[in-house]
Amino acid sequence: CLWVRNLRLKRRLPGPFAWPVVGNAMQLGQMPHITFAKLAKKYGNVYQIRLGCSDIVVLNGERAIRQALVQHSTEFAGRPNFASFQMISGGRSMTFTNYSKQWKAHRKIAQSSLRAFSSANSQTKKAFEQHVTAEAMELVQVFLRHSTDGRYFDPSYEFTVAAANVICALCFGRRYGHDDLEFRTLLRRVNKFGETVGAGSLVDVMPWLKSFPNPVRSVYENFKNLNEEFFAFVKDKVVEHRESFNPDITRDMSDAIINVIEHGKDSGLTKEFVEATVTDLIGAGQDTASTFMQWIVLLLVKYPDMQAKLQELIDKVVGQDRLPSVEDRSNLALLDAFIYETMRFTSFVPVTIPHSTTSDVTIEGLHIPKDTVVFINQWSVNNDPLTWKDPHIFDPTRFLDENGALDKDKTNSVMIFSMGKRRCIGDQIAKVTVFLFTAVLLHQCSFESDPSEPLTLDCSYGLSLKPLRFCVSAKLRGKLLGLVS
Ligand code: HEM
């Protein structure tokens, strides 16, 4: 029974004293991942906290996290049964559903259709890269327009639109203009998604907060509305696809998913799972990639010497007459190092989406019962002083070996896409997108921050850490290039 289970959890796992009713909620602070890392120093890498009525195990450091997510991958592959998770993707989300046979089938379909449109063979790879490069050139033009007469602008919305377009083109075969007001408004609202599902969000662990007016309740209500609105937007497009579906021509990922789920042999999923899959993919792909790009540009203006060095390298390798491409990657080790250091230093997905245990399990000699909520602290892996010298310092060269090549051991030690059965399925397309966006932006433009505003690396907490508003200006370097077909 629950009582015996809780008693066992209490006896076996170390952790701070939990207050009645709120547990440790008041101790989390503004940046829970940093609090979690501090608590690990006192209680070890595996410990227990309580938030409201939920006992939660927090995992820190590479060894404990790897042991859990890789060695005990099935036991840690669950998701908690949080009320907010049921509101996502029409209640049929793959990302936010518990471990089951159906989840396995759903994840396989999402993963294989994503691969089919981005990396299945050299042709799809090329098509995907060209389309990302075209999106990057749109960004260049929008940025230059916003910088007319030396003006400064907030690049965050443009990155949101660009990242959403990369995934919308895969899913719907179309993109949206940066001045499409309806699309911008939708994305601006979706931007708030991570506030509710980030580890340490209180709505799911203190359900009674929903019964009287308070800031948590309004976050919860907004979350419900934004998910409904976003799902309706996607559903509309999927319905159009369904109506014009032709089994002989697969136009895009929506068609591919309709084909497997509705026309395939016993997918085990009903047709409503098509719109849920597409909603999941657009939601997951857009928010993370745009946050990543905001950090990239913020760090480029924060470290102008690094920006100049990267441009010098790109000029040497690529020249002025063509745009950078993925083939240049092996000659642009410093650029990759800069991207990896951005992932490590910002750890902008500091804690994964909450997991839960699918059966009783023992980790580092500590017993964790079935159905326990588990927080995985990725930030603690990226800031471990035993792996990283001076982890608080931004230094891309830490990823280069003595010959100036990318150090694969080091890049493999960065943890931002999680690991094991729930590992991100968009990591490859995210890496290609961020590499091409950054290379093209640096090749075409120089960025500087607004000198009238202090430049800070402070951020807001959620599923992803987002930089506070900052403004930049972009200047054209050399000539504005078109796309090579
Ligand atoms: C899950 C990171 C981009 C699709 C996740 C998780 C993380 C993550 C940390 C949670 C893993 C866990 O709970 O253990 C990132 C980062 C990205 C990125 C840092 C960009 C830089 C993308 C893109 C897509 C995508 C572009 C798809 C187009 C997904 C899906 C899941 C997921 C579907 C759920 C997997 C599951 O629950 O089985 N991602 N992601 N992600 N990501 Fe990503």
Automatic annotation (TrEMBL):
<dbReference type="InterPro" id="IPR001128">
    <property type="entry name" value="Cyt_P450"/>
</dbReference>
<keyword id="KW-0408">Iron</keyword>
<keyword id="KW-0560">Oxidoreductase</keyword>
<dbReference type="Pfam" id="PF00067">
    <property type="entry name" value="p450"/>
</dbReference>
<keyword id="KW-0349">Heme</keyword>
<dbReference type="InterPro" id="IPR002401">
    <property type="entry name" value="Cyt_P450_E_grp-I"/>
</dbReference>
<keyword id="KW-0503">Monooxygenase</keyword>
<dbReference type="GO" id="GO:0042448">
    <property type="term" value="P:progesterone metabolic process"/>
</dbReference>
<dbReference type="GO" id="GO:0005506">
    <property type="term" value="F:iron ion binding"/>
</dbReference>
<keyword id="KW-0479">Metal-binding</keyword>
<dbReference type="GO" id="GO:0020037">
    <property type="term" value="F:heme binding"/>
</dbReference>
<dbReference type="GO" id="GO:0042446">
    <property type="term" value="P:hormone biosynthetic process"/>
</dbReference>
<dbReference type="GO" id="GO:0016020">
    <property type="term" value="C:membrane"/>
</dbReference>
<dbReference type="InterPro" id="IPR036396">
    <property type="entry name" value="Cyt_P450_sf"/>
</dbReference>
<dbReference type="InterPro" id="IPR017972">
    <property type="entry name" value="Cyt_P450_CS"/>
</dbReference>
<protein>
    <submittedName>
        <fullName>Cytochrome P450 1B1-like</fullName>
    </submittedName>
</protein>
<dbReference type="GO" id="GO:0004508">
    <property type="term" value="F:steroid 17-alpha-monooxygenase activity"/>
</dbReference>
<keyword id="KW-0472">Membrane</keyword>
<comment type="similarity">
    <text>Belongs to the cytochrome P450 family.</text>
</comment>
<feature type="binding site" description="axial binding residue">
    <location>
        <position position="424"/>
    </location>
    <ligand>
        <name>heme</name>
    </ligand>
</feature>
